[in-house]
Structure formats: C-alpha cells, structure tokens
Amino acid sequence: MPVTSAGVLLYRRAPQFEVLVAHMGGPFWARKQEHAWSIPKGELDADEEPRAAALREFAEELGLPAPEVDYADLGTVRYASGKLLHVFAGEATDFELDGFAPGTFELEWPPRSGRTAEFPEVDDVRWAGLAEARTLLVKGQLGALDALERHLATSA
C-alpha cells in the first residue's frame, strides 16, 4: 500500500493570485530552491481522516493553526514514486505568516555518523504566484496546482 499524506493548499486572489508554499527543511534541501518547496503536508496517522491530517500537519509544520476557512477537497495526486497526497484547498486572503515557528525532526547527520541532529521541518514559507509556484514545488505536487485551477474554474 502506498504512503498517503494530506496537505493544505492555501490561496489568495489579491493583490495577485498566489499560493502558500514552504521550503523543506533539513540538509538535503538546504541549498536547493527549484522543486524544493512543498505545500504543508504530512502522513496520515492510523485511521485518521485526510482533512484532519492535513489541518494537523499544517499546524505542526508551520507552528501556525490552519485558517478557519472553507476547504475544498481537490482529491489525490500521485508522485512518480507512487506516494499519494490528498489535497484540501482554502482561500485565505487575510492569512499572515507572523508567528511562523516550524516543527522539527531528528535525522542522523552526517549520514552513517551515528550522530543525530535536529532540523526544522520547514525553513521558509511564503506566498508565490502560480508560475513561480510551478518552479518551486516538488514535481509530484504540481498536479495539486492543476486541480486547484480546475476547481476555481468550475466554481466561478
């Protein structure tokens, strides 16, 4: 069974159309920009509903609660690796990044050293225009942007 995650894709329409993206933390992503960003997301716990997992992971990764807005279920996108990501989109025009305080994770670093180090799950977060987001997001999540565009076109 493939690994399943859930995430929140926030967007706003003003001053221009933008989505919220987060730069992945840790040494692997430290010097990368292109395709090194993600929507806030994480793996589902056993028997956890995807929407609940998405909201929980948003808060864990950014240290900020997900805004209380209506969330549209955009469905699931599949990474080339087979991993599944269930995406929920919400319009959050007034959502501010003040108080950003990312969660952390431990990793053996350097590899095979026997030492562990603590790293932020996310080391930067920002609003990005759609074209920029397509170059920043990991390739497996680009389908989430397509799903958002389809959703907004049909709900207009």
Automatic annotation (TrEMBL):
GO molecular function: bis(5'-nucleosyl)-tetraphosphatase (asymmetrical) activity
CDD domains: NUDIX_Hydrolase
UniProt keyword list: Hydrolase
Presence of keyword Hydrolase: yes
GO biological process: AMP biosynthetic process; ATP biosynthetic process
Domain Nudix hydrolase residue range list: 1-150
PROSITE patterns (UniProt xref): NUDIX, NUDIX_BOX
Pfam families registered for this protein in UniProt: NUDIX
Family matches, as Gene3D superfamilies: Nucleoside Triphosphate Pyrophosphohydrolase (3.90.79.10)
Name of the protein in question: NUDIX family NTP pyrophosphohydrolase
InterPro entries registered for this protein in UniProt: NUDIX_hydrolase-like_dom_sf, NUDIX_hydrolase_CS, NUDIX_hydrolase_dom, Nudix_hydrolase_domain
Domain of life: Bacteria
